[in-house]
């Protein structure tokens, strides 16, 4: 499929995404819902989404993360690790997952990230209530949350409705950028915030003609590029 056809498909899908996907607002979300989204972003890195959702739901159900224990990260870590090392039912089906892929290191990341936020700001909602530009808040998340890089931080801030103008740069977007900008994504170390922000600025400039918020273009592009796979050509 040619680039012009891809852009046509993305533009058409943007309208569907805008009309069907309901974006939440962190102001109306409970603290438990915000904690869940933070956990989900940490678990979702390098793991199938349905697996991450299922284990995040199990952690929420067990109430592993508590402000009461924020001064005792080891206790929280052990509680989370117990869930991740065990089997859970799929959130959507009768399928069972035997064990999360990276149980202990992700338990450490979740415990440290949660405790750092609570001990420094009081709660996740208080952290979001700083009301600073989304790009600066993303940097804060990367700073205080082990295991959360720029992509995961962007995902969290989008999922809780803090901003719809941060790009979630994944392999599908990188493929699109390689096609449109004649560049090699391998040249960029997107785990580093400065490199991520540079690629993000290029991407936002590239897709501004779609005339939709970045979050909507991202979602539409994810669907289109995932379906096309290797079929996309310049």
Can you walk me through this structure?
The structure is a single chain. The protein is mostly helical and 234 residues long. The chain folds into two domains: 3-22 and 167-231; 31-159, Hypothetical protein, domain 2 (Endonuclease III, domain 1). The chain contains eleven helices and two strands, in the order H-H-H-H-E-E-H-H-H-H-H-H-H. The protein has helices at residues 3-20, 31-43, 49-62, 73-84, 103-121, 124-128, 134-144, 150-159, 171-181, 193-207, 214-228; strands at 88-89, 96-97. Strand 1 and strand 2 (96-97) form a beta hairpin.
Briefly summarize what is shown.
The protein is an all-alpha fold. Helices cover 61% and strands 2% of the residues. The protein has helices spanning 3-20, 31-43, 49-62, 73-84, 103-121, 124-128, 134-144, 150-159, 171-181, 193-207, 214-228, and strands spanning 88-89, 96-97.
Identify the notable features of this structure and list them briefly.
mainly alpha, 2 strands, two-stranded antiparallel ribbon, 2 domains, 234 residues, 11 helices, 2% strand, Endonuclease III, domain 1
